[in-house]
Amino acid sequence: MLDLGCGTGRLSLHLRELGYDAVAVDSSAEMLAAARAKPGGKQIAWLQGDAGALPLAARAFDAVVALRMAFHFPDLRLLLGAAIGVVKSGGRILFDTYNWSPRAWAPLGQGTWGARIYVHHPDQVQREARGLGLDVVETRACFLFSPYVYRLLPLPIVQGLYRLEAIVPAGLRARTFWHLQVGDPTKGPVGPFVALAADPELDPARRGGRVRGRGDLALASPAPTGP
Ligand SMILES: C[S@@+](CC[C@H](N)C(=O)[O-])C[C@H]1O[C@@H](n2cnc3c(N)ncnc32)[C@H](O)[C@@H]1O
């Protein structure tokens, strides 16, 4: 699997724990250095590269995962096009988009919160995905706020927000997770993926009772069955 825009390897390392062969790409040398230094980092191939010109062979991957990455792209088709180029026929593309965020309206607290983000309306994502020949397998709207807000809150409050989220209309939730398939939807080397709202970062036993990471959909699939 390719973790595109891997950052400091949060997802790549999790994928490795799940038993996937993970290759991770990011444009930032600093992020990659931090990822490499983490426990388990030596088991993953970390590559510096830009999504616009990936240093990878065409159709080499069963799946591309790009979490918290799409918001960097004013035109999502650039990211989807990059993923399509490296995924096998029948393979999967998993990513998330923001439905709304104060950081899309104004460059709020850039120093603290990072750069401005781009939101992508779910209808537009559907249209663009289908325009590129992708099959939309599954979508899920989650989270009342940005992950950066969840990160600051104690676990019981986050758990309360999760309960509240269940009764808030999907259109008001902050993010949508997408599971797309490239090529013939009747066949595929990977599968079936199920998106889960289970995130090891939310496990209080692992995080000292405080949410230090942020909720994201983790991936679950049948355990990989060999090459
Ligand atoms: C918010 S971080 C998310 C990291 C990781 N996916 C996660 O969920 O923890 C976004 C990452 O995308 C990388 N990035 C942004 N634009 C990129 C591009 N055009 N090509 C490759 N990486 C990019 C950034 O360097 C950053 O590490």
Helix content: 25-40%
What is the string of helix and strand elements?
Answer: EHEHEEHEHHHEHHEEHE
How many beta strands in the DSSP annotation? 9
What binds here, in terms of ligands, is:
S-adenosylmethionine
Question: Which topology does CATH recognise?
Answer: Rossmann fold
What is the mean pLDDT?
78
Helix vs. strand class: alpha/beta
Strand order of the largest sheet: 3-2-1-4-5-7-6
CATH architecture descriptor:
3-Layer(aba) Sandwich
Oligomer: single chain
Q: What value does the Rg take, in angstroms?
A: 17 Å
| Shape annotation | globular
Which CATH C-level class is it?
Alpha Beta
Q: How would a textbook summarize the main sheet?
A: 7 strands, mixed
Poorly predicted ranges (pLDDT <50, ≥5 residues)?
191-215, 217-227
Span between termini: 12 Å
Question: Helical segment tally?
Answer: 9
Tell me the strand percentage band.
15-25%
Number of domains: 1
What attributes characterize this protein structure?
Rossmann fold; two-stranded antiparallel ribbon; disordered C terminus; 9 strands; binds S-adenosylmethionine; seven-stranded mixed beta sheet; alpha/beta; about 230 residues; 9 helices
